[in-house]
Structure formats: structure tokens, C-alpha cells
Design brief:
The chain is α/β, with parallel strands linked by helices. It has 15 helices and twelve strands. It is elongated, with a radius of gyration of 22 Å.
């Protein structure tokens, strides 16, 4: 998302003069969260670079991708303080959920959030996520839902997801993580199979805090090893093929913002069963473009699974509606149009200079 924002701002150079800075201190995903002397020195150097640009470029707006916790939050709080010192207006781009709960759990986080949000504008991924911020004293809130490039192929056009009436294919597509609800889904499927329902269960994703050995053990404990297949990581065409060959997409995550994988399932016309966390209810209309269940409620998940397994016509209707909703609201072009409109709106509220509106963007890779 950050790259797309950077490119779009760059294409608006006739009205927005921009600069981009990468504030990440990690060279790879493996280094994220790992302390190192090099990272500390790089971070200090980036602070100096940031101050120089605030002085020399003097941006009227800073579009800032704000972190929510840990060392990254402390790092970003310093940037917010610097912008306040230099009296620079800034917009906090929030791509995750749970600010309200984290503020309740820690006085330190609550203080940092209140200080950072004070007199700032915030951009969230959905209206529901914006409502999580009502306790903070920000100026204005805007919504900017994610969007992806549509995947269009002959295989997708031919895919109907009808499956077998008696043996539909259920797919889980995410990294193997406890917070993604994988163990919840396995337990619910075990209960479903006990009642005599036939199904195929496919797991797609890389190992994370759940190992393959732990995954297999859980499948065995719930007696669904025989109907389950672990496909490992799938990317690009292989990932899309796995989605197109499925009949039901289940996303039982415990916490989310606006997950791209749901957009991918919508793109494929899959009936979606997802937990009601974060911005997901703003993506899926329960009973119309998918089904929602209470996060961590295995019995509720089991009940909704049984409904989809039994009712082929419902699966077809939900999948078709999800696909329509995707093409009407969640494509990459929709994202770009909304972002451009937002930037133009914010630019109009600023004092114009001879070089146009000066926009300073941040990209974290």
C-alpha cells in the first residue's frame, strides 16, 4: 500500500511537490523486531535526515504510516514530536486495528496515542476502524479501504465453486498463526465431520508460530487428517489457482484490519465465512455477500460452516454477490481514486505556494 501511495503522489506532481523517506531500520523481514547496533545507528541517521527535510523542504503536510505498538510505536512517536516542534501538519495512516484496546491495556500506549493523535488527521481502512479511535482527540478522520488489482483469467471465468453437493472443498489461506484462528477452524471442522458431513480441507500458508508438525498434530487430535491437505506456501498464479479450486473460503482470524486475502477471495467469487473483527464487517455484509461469526466462538463457527456445506445455492449467491461487491468497491482503481480524492481534499485545505502543495510522504518497506 505504501508503494502505491508513493507512486500516486508522484503522478500528482503538477499540484503536489513531494519527497519520500523510508523510515524502516530493517533490511529484511527477518530483522523486524530484532535489536542491533546497526539498526540503532540507522534509526538515528534517519531522524537527522527527517529533521533536515522538515527544515529545507518545509512540507505543509506529512502523510505518515503510523505504527501501533512496540519499538516501532516509540520510534514513530518521536517523529510525531518532531513534527509538532516544527509545527508541521501531519496525517496518520493507520493500517491496523485495536488502538482502543491497546490504550486500555497500557497507560504508556494511551499517553502516546493521545499525544500523537492530538490535532492530527487520521486515515483508517474502514468506518468501523475509525470508530475505535473516538476516545482520541484528533481533528478529522477519513476512510481509505484497501484495493487490489483484479485477477482475470480464463480459469477464473470458468470457475463456479459449485463443488460436490456432498463434499465441498474448504480452504484456509494465511500464514500458520494462532491469531489467524487456524486451530479454531480445525476444531470446528472436527465437530462438523463428527456429524457426518463430508468435506475436503486445504491449508495454504507458510509456517509461523504454528509449525507443520503442530498442524498435523491438531488435525490428528480432531480426526480430520484423512480429509485435510497442507499445500504449503502458494504465491501468484498458484495461490489464485488454489482459491479458484475451492468452494468455501474461511477466515477465522482473532484480529484484523482490512485483510487483502478476503479481497482475493471476493475477486474469485468465493462464498466467505469470516470472523467479525476489525474492518471485516465493512467488507462483508452478513447474509448477503458472506457470513460472519463471532471471533473465537467455535460453536458459532461450526454452525455457519454447516449452513454453507449444506446449501449449494446459498454458496453460489454469496459468492456472486461478493464478486460484484469487489468489482464495485475494492479494486486497485477504486483505491487510487479514493486516495487521489483524499489528497486533493486535504491539499485544498492548505495554503498554496508557488511550487504547489508540498506533500511529504513516508514509505515503510
Amino acid at each position: 500500500m505504501n508503494d502505491r501511495i508513493t507512486r500516486l503522489v508522484g503522478n500528482m506532481e503538477d499540484t503536489i511537490e513531494s519527497r519520500v523517506i523510508d523510515l524502516s531500520n530493517s533490511n529484511s523481514s527477518n530483522e523486524i523486531g530484532v535489536f542491533g547496533v546497526f539498526k540503532v545507528l540507522k534509526g538515528l541517521g534517519t531522524y537527522v535526515e527527517f529533521i533536515k527535510l522538515l527544515v529545507s523542504f518545509h512540507p505543509q503536510i506529512v502523510f505518515f504510516n503510523f505504527s501501533s505498538r512496540g519499538v516501532a510505536l516509540l520510534r514513530d512517536y518521536v517523529y510525531c514530536l518532531l513534527m509538532k516542534v516544527f509545527r508541521t501538519r501531519y496525517i496518520l495512516y493507520l493500517q491496523i486495528s485495536g488502538f482502543d484496546k491497546r490504550a486500555e491495556s497500557s497507560r504508556l500506549w494511551r499517553f502516546i496515542y493521545n499525544s500523537s493523535f492530538h490535532n492530527a488527521r487520521v486515515v483508517t481502512l474502514s468506518d468501523r476502524l475509525s470508530r475505535e479511535l473516538k476516545q482520541f482527540n484528533y481533528l478529522e478522520s477519513y476512510t481509505l479501504p484497501n484495493g487490489i488489482h483484479p485477477y482475470d483469467s480464463e480459469l477464473l471465468k470458468q470457475s463456479t465453486h459449485n463443488g460436490s453437493v456432498s463434499k465441498p472443498k474448504v480452504i484456509f489461506l494465511s500464514n500458520l498463526m494462532v491469531e489467524k484462528g487456524l486451530f479454531d477452524l480445525i476444531e470446528a471442522l472436527g465437530e462438523v465431520c463428527k456429524k457426518g458431513y463430508q468435506l475436503e480441507f486445504q491449508i495454504v500458508g507458510a509456517e509461523a508460530d504454528i509449525t507443520v508438525a503442530e498442524l498435523k498434530k491438531s488435525l490428528e487430535e480432531h480426526n480430520i487428517t484423512g480429509c485435510s491437505t497442507y499445500l504449503g506456501s502458494k504465491y501468484n498464479d498458484e495461490k489464485w489457482e488454489a482459491l479458484m479450486n475451492a468452494d468455501i473460503f474461511v477466515f477465522p482470524s482473532h484480529k484484523e484490519a482490512l485483510p487483502l486475502v478476503i479481497l482475493e477471495a471476493m475477486n474469485c467469487g468465493l462464498p466467505i465465512l469470516a470472523s467479525d473483527v476489525g474492518g471485516i464487517p465493512d467488507m462483508i455484509q452478513d447474509g448477503k455477500s458472506g457470513l460472519l461469526f463471532r471471533a473465537r466462538d467455535i460453536n458459532n463457527l461450526k454452525t455457519k460452516l454447516e449452513i454453507l456445506i449444506q446449501d449449494v445455492s446459498l454458496r453460489e449467491r454469496l459468492g456472486a454477490e461478493a464478486k460484484t461487491l469487489f468489482y464495485e468497491h475494492f479494486t486497485h482503481s477504486h483505491f487510487e481514486q479514493r486516495l487521489k480524492g483524499l489528497l486533493e481534499k486535504l491539499s485544498m485545505s492548505q495554503e498554496k505556494s508557488k511550487t504547489g502543495i508540498r506533500m511529504y510522504t513516508k514509505s515503510v518497506l
